[in-house]
Amino acid sequence: MPPTAADLIRELPMGQLVDHQFFAIATMDEPLAWARNTVRRLLHGQTDQDQIDDAVLVVTELLTNAIRHAGGPVSLTLDRFEKGVTVSVTDRGRDIAALPADVACPLANSPKQTAEEVGEGDLATNGRGLFLVGAFASGWGVEPARDGKVVTAAFCSSGSAA
Q: What is the CA radius of gyration of the chain?
């Protein structure tokens, strides 16, 4: 079973929650640009630039997947901890079994692999973005939510994971 957001936070050295931000994305004209700017603004001065860049990349990928594939309302949650950040995207999609097997059940402390090591043939055409999430986040997971699913990525303050 994939790790839950709570499992990720317990397994990674995140510390106490410092700030919680929730945003409904449904009616925005440019949700990806807005999300990139918002993540940069909220994390500016709170962590290093590599971690901000990693979080922006992952948020962009998760929101793109949610908007393109799940339909319905989408939301973004950004939680800042003493020693890290989590970003979560919630959407109406329910099919977590459709994720590639090597991506669906990541372990928070698993070794990172490069795209060359995995090989292009091993990733589904629509699964490469989740490979990026795994490469740049310290850990991530997907879990069912009340009206869909939530994908959470965690970033420890030690800097860029890639």
A: 15
Q: What are the C-alpha distances in Å from 39 to residues 62, 97, 144?
A: 13, 29, 24
Distance of CA 140 to the CA centre of its chain: 6
Tokens 């319905």 sit at which residue?
72
Token pair recorded at residue 49: 């630039």
Mark residue 57 as left, alpha or beta (left: phi above 0; alpha: psi -120 to 50; beta: remaining): alpha
| pLDDT digit string, tens, across residues 87-125 | 999 999 887 754 544 444 443 333 344 444 444 444 444
Tokens 């990928």 found at: 61
**Whole-angstrom distance, CA of residue 61 vs CA of residue 55:** 10
Residue 29 tokens, joined: 């004209």
